[in-house]
Amino acid sequence: MITLYHTPLSINSRRVWVALIEKGLEFELKEINLTGDQFKPEFLALNPFHHIPVLVDGDHTIIESFAMLDYLEAKYPRPALMPTQPEAVVRVRMVQMVTLNEMLPATMPLTMKHLFGKDDPDAVKQAYEKAAVVFKFWAQQLGDDQFFGGPQLSLADVVSGTMAAWFPEMGLSLADYPTLAAWRQRLMERPAWQQTHVSQAALDDFKERMRSRMGGQ
Question: Is 217 helix (H, G, I), strand (E, B) or coil?
Fold first, then answer.
């Protein structure tokens, strides 16, 4: 049995959760409360860096979500989430890494503002500008295809799409990028995204706890 140690609000966790569902695999979810569960000896035995997610499949324990995605694709290749054509493989990998290395850090000020109540106007302005660069790149890579890998869902869609799910909460709009807006809508309607959706009540509770912890109003 596959076990995913996760936190529902974590983008890193959700991308693996979505991949498991998209591949139709049977798995068990074990939620880790990040107020202390990650430092318990039993969890540290799985990941000494006390981060989530952690994927356990039989005798194999995998940390780092991108490694988990690659493992699942190699171990359970059907249905495939990675195209075979060289150009499509490169496109998938580029979108994955741009999401991780460019989009995620660029939008941190938006997360701090909209989720945690910490506003830095200059940083927020730069965040929107950097996000626009990523949107243009994504739109270029997507072209007229339904997904970044072509007609079929790919790991690039899993990685970028689990982040795109949070765009409304971050104040990000795809109105100027109709192909991306349609792409995001397709993803949000898929069962994997529906099943992993965080309820508004859970999100509001998380925001309140974080703002209280950080001294926000």
Answer: coil
